[in-house]
Write a structure and sequence with these properties.
Blueprint (H helix, E strand, L loop, with lengths): L9 E4 L8 H8 L4 E4 L14 H13 L4 E5 L11 H21 L4 E3 L9 H18 L7 E4 L12 H11 L5 E6 H7 L6 H14 L5 E6 L1 E2 L10 E2 L8 H9 L8 E3 L7 H12 L8
Parallel strand pairs: 1-2, 1-10, 2-3, 3-4, 4-5, 5-6, 6-7, 7-10
Antiparallel strand pairs: 8-9
Helix pairs in contact: 4-5, 7-8
The structure holds zinc ion (2 copies).
Length: 292
């Protein structure tokens, strides 16, 4: 008999205001089994320095925590697809530093938005992302923490809004074990992959398996969407309050193929995440599925 519940590990993004180590207690407070953090301010190029004291505090807090799993989300400013040499070089340096922090902290992955081509064309942008990641991995064989390419809403010139982009990148980067995928239910819906009802969610998971492969799915961001299908606008909403609805989340949570895939919320209001997890656990158990 296994003690593991018949559902994916569930968790949430957690704040790190008092230092990275404080995220562990914050994860335990809401009963998160997996947490996501920013290792540095997501809107700034200058990264937080991880000194010996910060690493020691991290290890102590981790050993004390019930939560065992942790990933990071990289900074929003990074753009590995940028055709501007200065922005591109800065992005490569910043993502390398992000991988170094994640490796030092012993994280199981780091989420990355693939990038925006800013007018240079999708093919050129995708090629630049693949070349950048290959170069980083080749220059730093010690950085084994996997990059999780995230599906995007496709606003502006952002790439990664089609499953074909993600599949192309995985094949072109060709570094098994160092690259995988993170899906975001809000982004998928905004990108035009209807998440508004259970049969559509099921069909999407089948399509993902056919185009990318479920073996590459390392993380799911469970977010409802304030915007309609195909809007290309990324606005997260609380679980059940947006265009997706509770039954769609229940479908994600109850698919037997996804029981090992950690799922985390990034819904508005960090203070609501405990409640969100209570609802998600109920949905996973087949309760509370009716909206409202
Ligand atoms: Zn993201
Ligand atoms: Zn988003």
């Amino acid at each position: 008999m296994s003690n593991h519940p018949a559902r994916p590990p569930l968790g949430a993004h957690r704040p790190t205001v008092g230092g990275l180590h404080t995220a562990w207690a914050s994860a335990d407070e809401i009963g998160a089994e997996v947490m996501q953090i920013f290792t540095s301010s997501p809107q700034q190029w200058a990264a937080r320095r991880l000194d010996e004291a910060a690493l020691a505090a991290w290890s102590v807090a981790r050993a004390d925590a019930v939560c065992r799993r942790v990933v990071a989300h990289s900074a929003y400013l990074l753009n590995l697809a940028s055709p501007k040499p200065e922005t591109h070089e800065r992005s490569v340096a910043a993502f390398t530093a992000e991988l170094q922090r994640c490796q030092a902290l012993g994280l199981e992955g780091v989420v990355l938005h693939p990038g925006a081509h800013t007018g240079d064309g999708e093919e050129a942008g995708l090629e630049r992302i693949a070349a950048s990641l290959r170069a980083i991995y080749d220059a730093h064989p010690e950085l084994t923490v996997p990059t999780l390419l995230e599906s995007t809403a496709g606003s502006g010139t952002h790439l990664g809004y089609r499953l074909e982009h993600l599949a192309w990148l995985l094949a072109a980067i060709d570094r098994p074990g160092r690259i995988a995928v993170c899906l975001d239910t809000c982004h998928l819906h905004a990108a035009g992959y209807d998440q508004g009802w259970p049969a559509a969610v099921q069909a999407f998971i089948d399509e993902f398996d056919a185009v990318v492969g479920l073996e590459y799915l390392a993380l799911v961001h469970l977010n409802d969407s304030k915007t309609a299908v195909g809007s290309r606008v990324d606005r997260h909403e609380r679980i059940g309050d947006g265009h997706l609805g509770r039954a769609s989340f229940a479908t994600w949570l109850r698919d037997e193929r996804l029981r090992q895939v950690p799922m985390a919320v990034e819904t508005p209001g960090l203070e609501n995440h405990g409640e969100e997890l209570v609802l998600l656990r109920a949905l996973a158990a087949g309760e509370e599925v009716d909206d409202g």
